[in-house]
Amino acid sequence: MSAFFQWQLVWEYFPKILSALPVTLMIVGVATIVGLLLGILLAFIRVEKVPFLSQLAAVFVSFIRGTPILVQLYVVYYGVPALLQMIQVDVSSWNKIIFIYITYGLNTAAFQSETFRAAILSVPVTQKEASIACGLTKTQMYRQVILPQVVRVALPAFGTTTIALLQDTSLAFTIGVVDVVGKARAIGAVTFHTLEGYVGAAILFITLSFLLERVFTGLERRMSFSKTKQQTAKVPLISWTKKQQKIKTT
């Protein structure tokens, strides 16, 4: 058993695996930003039913949600250079990490668009009608009335998708990107102790997932509707007690 698995090798390999963490975090960061911006845009297009673009967005979302991310990665990695080559654009000098950013950004955008679309549709129609009746433009209505509520509703699902994105980065090594899992795989290929490297990678992923979960849980508590209602409910009571104190002093 000691020859098959050695705990001391886990801690010996862990610093090397940790050195690849910036690559994994960069993938998560770029994909989250791209997915957030593009996801909100796709959600607005589908909610507002923009001609042609709405149907195109629905096909895109259905394709992304209906295929494994590994298939999407190969489609982007092999398909994008082939398409660009038709218009005489050479991408052979591109870093492989760029294809990872494109794939994970599009994948995140598709899932986040459904999250934001559901959050927008959860806002009562009466609030939209009241905003328009008050003279607000559609842009002002979304910015001042709809979006604050959308953020609160979408935050739990957004956090779940981000944690899932962190775990999905483990497939980046399939095209040669040396992330956390790629480093563990490389260590195993050299030392023939593959399991120890994967255990170190698993410890790192579990720790990061736990930290992300705590961050999003804290944000949900700060932005929850119940907490906001409690704070607003306290205001009349405070003002009433202050008035009573003034009456007694006079």
Structural class comes to: mainly alpha
Judging by the overall fold, what is the CATH architecture?
Orthogonal Bundle
Per the principal axes of the C-alpha atoms, what is the gross shape? flat
Roughly what percent helix? over 70%
Report the β-strand fraction as a percent range: under 5%
**CATH class value:** Mainly Alpha
Give the overall pLDDT as a whole number: 86
Number of domains: 1
Please, what is the oligomeric state? single chain
Could you please say which CATH topology applies here? MetI-like fold
Strand element count: 0
Number of helices: 10
Question: Span between N and C termini?
Answer: 85 Å
Q: State the CATH superfamily name.
A: MetI-like
Cα Rg:
25 Å
Q: Could you give a short description of this structure?
A:
The chain is mainly α. It has helices spanning 7-18, 21-47, 53-66, 69-86, 96-122, 125-133, 138-168, 180-191, 194-222, 225-249. It has one domain (9-249): MetI-like (MetI-like fold, Orthogonal Bundle).
Q: Can you walk through the features of this model?
A:
The protein is mainly alpha-helical and 250 residues long. It has 10 helices and no strands. The protein has helices spanning 7-18, 21-47, 53-66, 69-86, 96-122, 125-133, 138-168, 180-191, 194-222, 225-249. The longest helix is centred in the middle third of the chain and has 31 residues, at 138-168. It is flat. The chain starts with 6 loop residues before the first helix and ends with a helix. Residues 231-244 have low confidence and may be disordered.
